[in-house]
TrEMBL record:
Species whose genome carries this gene: Tsukamurella paurometabola (strain ATCC 8368 / DSM 20162 / CCUG 35730 / CIP 100753 / JCM 10117 / KCTC 9821 / NBRC 16120 / NCIMB 702349 / NCTC 13040) (Corynebacterium paurometabolum)
Keywords, sorted A to Z: Cell membrane, Membrane, Menaquinone biosynthesis, Transferase, Transmembrane, Transmembrane helix
Superkingdom assignment: Bacteria
HAMAP family named among the record's database cross-references: MenA_1
Protein family (similarity comment): Belongs to the MenA family. Type 1 subfamily.
Top enzyme class: transferase
Function: Conversion of 1,4-dihydroxy-2-naphthoate (DHNA) to demethylmenaquinone (DMK).
Gene name, Swiss-Prot/TrEMBL: menA
InterPro entries: MenA, UbiA_prenyltransferase, UbiA_sf, UBIAD1
Membrane topology value: Multi-pass membrane protein
Compartments, record wording: Cell membrane; Membrane
Alphabetized GO MF terms: 1,4-dihydroxy-2-naphthoate polyprenyltransferase activity
Protein name: 1,4-dihydroxy-2-naphthoate octaprenyltransferase
Length: 291
């Protein structure tokens, strides 16, 4: 049986910036409108964290039973390594989805009932990424889903439940966070091109090939810097604080542009997540200061 430490590693805590950054950015956008509500921000954080943990366990389960993780370079996978049964990992995923659902219903009932439907779509998207008979993550659509769910939906949803509306600062922030989140997945899939190809997992990286995937990663980590400049132009000069993330984005890109492979690409994932977190904090600080 897996130890608590192995369960923690299997939850992939390095992906948590993908859940935390959207809530910070969305709260900053609500703050720019003078409508930040901290208890709603915390509930949104519970939803986001629970969903990403659910996604991670669901992917562990689905990839594990398919044999995709039998020869894996990256983080520990519970099912693929044989440390936990598929049933236990599947149960962990649905517990996380349940927690997200409870917090999401509370937010919906205090803002807009139709957000419950959005939440159901998010859970379905989390499960069918690698689950079901025809997972969309195996069709090269994972990066688009990450951009939508952990960029647009997460940031704009956080802004909406607090402010009751969305605005251009929220949209630009959502696109920046979505770009960073997609870049994390691109780096992950770039590293796994050989094993994914062998197992039949046709990710976007497998479709594009090694060279084009590296170009895509570079574009995605550059976009948030440009969007930070756009925020400074349309909202407040304080948004220039987002430029603090640029050196981290460069550090993230170095292993990719220098042709790193396998384990050499793992730092790119961590640095991209850190750049995203710094961008979101700087974005929120700038929007609050400029309100």
């Amino acid at each position: 049986m897996a130890t608590p430490a192995q369960w923690l590693e299997g939850a992939r805590p390095r992906t948590l910036p993908n859940a935390i950054a959207p809530v910070i950015a969305g709260t900053g956008a609500a703050g720019y409108l003078g409508e930040a509500v901290w208890w709603k921000a915390l509930l949104a954080l519970v939803v986001s964290l629970s969903l990403i943990l659910g996604v991670n366990f669901a992917n562990d389960y689905s990839d594990g039973i398919r044999g995709t993780d039998d020869d894996r370079v990256g983080p520990l996978r519970l099912v693929g390594s044989g440390l936990a049964s598929p049933e236990a990992v599947k149960r962990a995923a649905f517990v996380c989805f349940g927690v997200a659902g409870v917090a999401g219903v509370i937010l919906s009932l205090t803002s807009a009932w139709w957000l419950i439907l959005v939440g159901l779509v998010c859970v379905a998207g989390a499960w069918f990424y690698t689950g079901g008979t025809n997972p969309y993550g195996y069709q090269g659509l994972g990066e688009i889903a990450v951009f939508v769910f952990f960029g647009l939906v997460a940031v704009l949803g956080t802004e909406f439940v607090q402010a009751g509306r969305i605005d251009v600062t929220g949209v630009l922030s959502a696109c920046a966070i979505g770009s960073y989140s997609s870049a994390v997945l691109v780096a992950n899939n770039l590293r796994d091109i050989p094993t994914d190809t062998e197992s039949g997992k046709i990710t976007l990286a497998v479709r594009l090939g090694d060279s084009n995937t590296r170009i895509l990663f570079g574009v995605l980590v550059a976009v948030p810097t440009a969007l930070g400049l756009a925020l400074a132009a349309v909202a407040t000069p304080w948004a220039l604080l987002t430029l603090l993330s640029a050196p981290l984005a460069v550090r993230a890109a170095l292993p990719v542009v220098r042709g790193g492979r396998g384990p050499a690409l793992i730092p790119a994932l961590a640095q991209t997540g850190l750049a995203m977190l710094v961008w979101s904090i700087a974005d929120a600080a700038g929007l609050f200061l400029g309100a």
